[in-house]
Amino acid sequence: MGELVVDKHVKYILSVEKRKDSFESVVLEHLRMNGAYWGLTTLDLLGKLGALDSNEVIQWIMKCQHESGGFAGNIGHDPHLLYTLSAVQVLALFDKLNVLDADKVANYISGLQNEDGSFSGDEWGEVDTRFSYLAICCLSILHRLDKMNVEKAVNYIASCKNVDGGFGCTPGGESHAGQIFCCVGALAITGSLHHVDKDLLGWWLCERQVKSGGLNGRPEKLPDVCYSWWVLSSLIMIDRVHWIDKDKLVKFILNCQDTENGGISDRPEDAVDVFHTYFGVAGLSLLEYPGLKAIDPAHALPVDVVNRIFFQKYTNISSRIHNLQNPLPTLTRRLFLPSVSGIWDALTGGNNNPREAVMAIRRGMLLFRQGDVLGSLVEFDKAIELDTRQKAYLWQRGLSLYYVDRFEEGAEQFPNRSQLYGVDEARKRFLEVGRDPRPVMREALSMFKDGGDPEKFATAFSNGQENEYFYASLYAGLYHEAQKEPEAAKVQIIAACRSPYGQRSDDYMASLAKVHCLCRNWSSD
């Protein structure tokens, strides 16, 4: 397995832009807006966005805007949701969303929503869950989700769920990895992931990995680099990415490179193109390949761009945590909205403000990751004030309460989840011993339920996968602490922090391990 040839890929992307008269450029003229998004996002992930003249790109994008507010794939072409999202994403890359009339764009998008909650891609009326994602993602970036009927959109997407856990383009349509990404991404952005059967969908997605390590989009199909994005991002959003062999997938992607001329192809030895180059690099970013910027799996933009869009007021957060002796480094991966179920349920009526509550939850999670536990509680409590329905879902608040010694309140935070959707649905959401597909979590739950030897538990997974060793060490330490054995707890939790997974991962529990050490004044360096 070779390494990512960054300089060659940058050179390839720039050469495609210059070869406007080539066959590839001519046949893709109507998709040029998408090509700009693929190429420029690739450059940004590689840390080379400055290699192109941003002013020239922005001027061209604005010339592609139609009087309706939507954007076309190129100058003089018809507008479509697909090109509109790409245009907005590219402007976000350059921090130039201010050049837009956001309401005009939002009105174009909301005007394409149908009575059943679905979206048409353009004025000609084709309906597809891809278009639901495009609309939701674009309006989210523009802070205009209130322009559409989110409740109807979510219900329509939920109606496209199949018995295998996947999603199709319309109700009853075959499950496909690309459609699954669109549906899961839309549900993640709107805080509606409770509509997903995570275990069932997780198994369907992880079964897409073939012997070569690559991923396919449907059963019995060849692997394709593009599914390194569609499948992997979906697995991350439902917290099941540990179910695939990441090392084999990295090897597959790297083997699809043209190491002489740059670019990435769908499969080894095939011709490269910008589309697969983007999805290959984006997939490697999701896999935390060294040297690449992190990408948000829901908005398909670099995480620093997403942070800038949603947390502009909080980019200089150090002022809020300057009193901490050893503040944590910023953890910049996967800051998309997690599975906070029901945020958009029953949007009308009452004094609830779901949209602002979502943002408060995002800020609270960011503050906790940075070690500002009190600050995170302020934001979580604000979310509950804005939308009282949030309290039952905010397990993150329970963790924050633990670290400010409000144990009874913290304990009350978790049982609330079992009261939702009736008894049958509640049972599905319990962390029951024996049901968790992860061996390390089954053993951890059993130990906390019936007692056990935490040292033996940690040792049993010491030679396992990186995430297993991390979780075994963390839960062994937490068990020791519950038994009032602080020195033994310290050894295990510091080991979790120092493990490869603890140092690299964006897992919320990896942040918790660091926060735990910080609150106990333990050095995890």
Automatic annotation (TrEMBL):
Protein keywords: Metal-binding, Prenyltransferase, Repeat, Transferase, Zinc
Catalytic activity: geranylgeranyl diphosphate + L-cysteinyl-[protein] = S-geranylgeranyl-L-cysteinyl-[protein] + diphosphate
Keyword Repeat: yes
Documented EC number(s): 2.5.1.60
One biological process term in Gene Ontology: gametophyte development
Cross-referenced InterPro entries: PGGT1B-like, Prenyltrans, Ptb1, Terpenoid_cyclase/PrenylTrfase, TPR-like_helical_dom_sf
Gene Ontology MF term list: metal ion binding; Rab geranylgeranyltransferase activity
Prenyltransferase alpha-alpha toroid domain span: 5-300
Cofactors required: Zn(2+)
One cellular-component annotation, GO: Rab-protein geranylgeranyltransferase complex
Enzyme type, top EC level: transferase
Signal peptide start and end residues: none
Superkingdom classification of source: Eukaryota
Family recorded in the similarity comment: Belongs to the protein prenyltransferase subunit beta family.
Name of the molecule in the record: protein geranylgeranyltransferase type II
Source species: Salix purpurea (Purple osier willow)
